[in-house]
Structures
1.
Amino acid sequence: MSDAIKNKNRISMVTLFAMFALPTLLALWLLGPGEDWMPARDTNNGTLIAPARPLPVDLALSSPARSISDR
């Protein structure tokens, strides 16, 4: 193979590797220890219903989902 083809193949492989590796490395860097970009705690708004009440069985959806076999 000529040097031009080898260089083109090498650039293609590096680009392909970067497409998959860079997002993973970025996610690990953002979620890594010592990073303080995440909130310190979670807050819940609202009140809990105690005791919990079950939903009615005949609860109808506003737009029922259809399976592929229904078509």
Note: Residues 3-31 form the longest helix (29 residues).
2.
Amino acid sequence: MNKLLKIQLIIGIVIIFSLILTTPQTIEMFKLLIGMALTILIVITIGFKISNKIPITIAPTLFFLDLLVVVAIKIKFIYFISTIGSVTVSTYTDYIVNYFVILIIGFIMSVLSVFVLSSTRKIIEVCARFNIDALPGRQMSIEVDYNSGVITEDEERDKKITLQKQVNLFFALDGVVNFITLSSTFGSIITGVTIVVRSLIETLQFNTTFVHNLKIYIIPMILEIFIFHFILMLLAKSVSIYIRKIMKENYLSINRY
């Protein structure tokens, strides 16, 4: 399974470096779309296909790498929209008339993201509390098996190490979910500030109205918020699925300890 971590690391590095390199606008948009598609595919694959096969030692690192790639794509998207100018942006957004609908969609996605992240954190807290409360009893059970000769000294040590790794896993995943929550919150704030500042710069440079520039930039930025929160929700959901599978394995194997 270390091979999976290496593949994920290579893909993440390739995506990040491809976003750093400066290319023409058409290629930049193409790179952003490819990066978003690959990120969504990676998150879905890890969370819904092979999450039960990920060792507990590399699972937090794997989810954290996914999050870093998502944040890199968000930064590149904001930079791309902020640098191409209102004239180029308007060529992509002229067909959209109802700005109120766009705002409602962005708001709904933000609220859904908050609910999903809150539920994931609650799942982690409950599972961590369950494991911590059951830890002394499971350790005593291991010691009883060792004293009765059922297991060897090496097996006793391995089982205790496994129990400690499971407890550490929930604390590590809680850190990942906290980072996802912070990324979601501050990402939305940064996007809002970027919209206002870029609209103000366009107003001062080209002597246009602030409201006109705001309408131009608000559509791609709301689209960015929609995509960003959607990927974060998938990532948080994959974390919760992985945790439930780990808890199920612990429940099924509890008689062995």
Note: Helices lie at 2-20, 25-48, 59-84, 86-93, 99-147, 153-206, 210-252.
